[in-house]
Each structure stands twice: as C-alpha cells, then as structure tokens.
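Morning, I've got a small favour to ask if you have a moment. I've been staring at a protein lately and its backbone has me curious. You're getting the sequence in one-letter code plus the fold written as tokens. I've dropped the whole record in just underneath, so have a look:
=====
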Amino acid sequence: MYPGRFRNFLAVDWSGAIGARQPGIALAMCKAGNYSPTLIHRDKNWSRADVLDFLTYDLPADTLVGLDLGISLPFEDFGSFFPDWPSSPSDARSLWQLIDTICENDPNLEATSLVDHPQLSRYFRRHGGREGDRFHAASAQHKRGRFRVTERAQEAQGCKPYSNFNLVGAAQVGKSSLTGMRVLHKLGGKLPVWPIDPVPDSGSVITEIYTGLAAIEAGRNAGRSKIRNYADLASALKVLGSKFPSESGELDDHSADAILTAAWLRKVAKNPRRWAPKSLTAKIAATEGWTFGTF
C-alpha cells in the first residue's frame, strides 16, 4: 500500500563542500494541491547542522522529505561496501554509524577523515589524480566506478548518475552523500528513511531524491537539467501541474533544483509504482537504499 497521505513536501538540495555554511544548500517546501513551492530562507546560508536541526525540530507534520544525496554506497555488486576489508559494515545504518564515528572530529559535519582513512581511501577516487586501487573493486561494471542498483535504474530513465565513491568533478555526489549519511545517523531514527525503514501510517518520512530525474520529468533533459531563471522554472513547474513563483529574472540553480523537485515530489508521491520499484528487494533496501521515483 502506498502512502498518498502526505500534506507537505520538502526538497533539500545538499552540499558536501568544506566550510561552515554552504551556498549550495537550498530548501523548498510545498503543500498538497498545486500551490507554488517556496524557498525556506535563513539570515545566512544554510549549514548542514541547520538542516539537521530543521528536520529534528521544525519539520511540519506529515512531510515527505527528499534529500538530494545518496543514502548509502554500492553493496549488491560485491556483497560488501568495502570488499575484503574485515570491518566493512553489513547494512546502511551501520555504514552511517561508521562514517560518523570516523569523522566525529571533522567540523561542520564534513567527511574528510573518511576519505583520508588509511584503508577506506583505497575505495575512493579523490582529487589530485588519487584513485584508490579498490575504486573499481577489481571488476566494476563501468569505468566510472561502482554503482548501486538504483543508479542503474536512474540510467534507464535517462539520467547520468555518478558513483558515490567518486569525489572528483562538479557533478560528483560522493561528498554530499558521505556528509548526508552523517546527518542521517545523527537523526537517530527520529524520522524513518525509506526504504531502509518501512513507511508508517502517519508522520514524516525521508527519501533520497535525484534532482536530475525531477528535471527530466518536468520536460528538461540530462544535458540541460539545470535551471537558472524564473521563466524556465515556471515552464517546468507547469509541466508538473504546479503553480509557480511570481518572480522574474535570474535564479541560482540550487534554489531552482529545490523548488522544482518539491513540486515533482508532490506529484509522484501519489503513484504506487514509485514506492514499489521492480528491482528493490529487502536486502537492497537494507544495504543500498533507493532513489525515490526510480522504477
């Protein structure tokens, strides 16, 4: 049974960059219906700790939350997050705990200590041409590194995902994912995270989202998914059956991603198929998680 019961929809465009406050973090919320999503502003740029506090204390009831980050790492391909490392965690929640423990002294919920870890750095592609000897885990299926099952599903829907083990390039999501997993661990189970947790009959739920998928389903394509003005945003929101902001002129792409994806999340959350992807097994749910909206 799918939960078509949410009253609010929150999209969070995330950032894994170093620093206390991130211009790349944007939050947008919309209510059920066709109301225009609105940005949630702060006096200063959002910090990751600010978002953690918002999710803990300020989230409206019955909100479906979409976080634009990977909630786990590849596991299914080798039966392990870190093949041949004896301390590799057995599931996603254990992975979050490991990351947060290793990075407990990193400021601003960063994840530098993990990617510089003597053993674990071998699994990541880092800046300066530092590709770990286990980045491909000996026989990865693609030169871009290892992928989760959900990322293969993203590809089938026209997206261009990156491996969460890749920390290089403007489009990489590895740093965002690692810092996001610290936030998920610190939430301490206060909010269920689908599909790692079952969706309860009431209350708010966190999901992983991919803003590129929302853009594609709003009439954009993978090569021109980014929106940087209100006119293009209005056109995309119209495709999703949403009203749009009355502003005009330029718009930063992080804010546009959040606004558009909040409206998309509201639209697709009613579709039972989005909650029952054909490749999502109980094991994959517990280890790799899933990107909401991919089939």
Remarks:
- The chain has two domains: 8-71+188-275, 92-185.
- The mean pLDDT is 94.
